[in-house]
Design goal:
By secondary structure, the chain is an alpha/beta fold. The chain is built from five helices and five strands. It has a five-stranded mixed β-sheet with strand order 1-2-3-4-5. Helix 1 runs parallel beside helix 2.
C-alpha cells in the first residue's frame, strides 16, 4: 500500500520551479533522471525563464539520480545562453553520480557549484567575468611593444 511502482522510474524527471529573490532568480528543483528521454523538460523550464527575462538560474541537483550527456548538454547550453545575457547558472548540491559524469565528460570545471542555497544565491547573482579578448597587431602595425622590441635589437 505505501509504495508506488513506476516502470519508467529510470527515465522520469520531475521539476519544481520557484522564483526567488524578488523574481530575479529561478530555482529549479530536479528529481529523477536527466537523460535523452527527459532533457526536453529541463530545456522547456529554462526556455520559460528566458521568456520571462530571467537569466539567473539555480539548478538543485540533490535529487538527480543519473545524468547523461544529453542532460549535461542542456546545462552547458543554458550556461552559455545566460552568460550572453550577463546571467549565470549555478548547480546546487551535485550528487556524486552526477559529478562523476561531469568529470568523465570533462565539463565539471565549467559549472559554478554550491553546497547550500544561500551560497548558490550569492553565486548566481555574481556575473562571471567575460572572456578577455586580446587585440593582436596585424603584420606591419606599429605598437609600443614593437617599438621596445625594435629598440632593444637595434642597440
Amino acid at each position: 500500500m505505501g509504495s508506488r511502482s513506476n516502470l519508467n522510474a529510470t527515465s522520469s524527471l520531475n521539476i519544481d520551479r520557484e522564483e526567488i529573490e524578488g523574481g530575479s532568480v529561478v530555482l529549479l528543483k530536479l528529481n529523477g533522471t536527466l537523460d535523452a528521454r527527459t532533457f526536453e523538460q529541463l530545456e522547456s523550464q529554462i526556455a520559460d525563464a528566458f521568456v520571462g527575462n530571467i537569466f539567473r538560474i539555480i539548478l538543485d541537483m540533490s535529487e538527480v539520480r543519473e545524468i547523461s550527456s544529453s542532460g549535461t548538454g542542456v546545462i552547458v547550453d543554458a550556461l552559455s545562453q545566460t552568460r550572453e545575457q550577463n546571467g549565470n547558472v549555478v548547480l546546487l548540491s551535485v550528487t556524486p553520480s552526477v559529478q562523476e559524469v561531469f568529470d568523465i565528460l570533462d565539463v565539471a570545471d565549467q559549472f559554478p557549484t554550491a553546497h547550500d542555497l544561500a551560497s548558490a544565491i550569492c553565486m548566481v547573482q555574481t556575473t562571471p567575468a567575460p572572456i578577455q579578448e586580446v587585440d593582436v597587431p596585424k603584420s606591419g602595425e606599429h605598437t609600443a611593444l614593437t617599438s621596445v622590441t625594435r629598440k632593444s635589437f637595434e642597440d
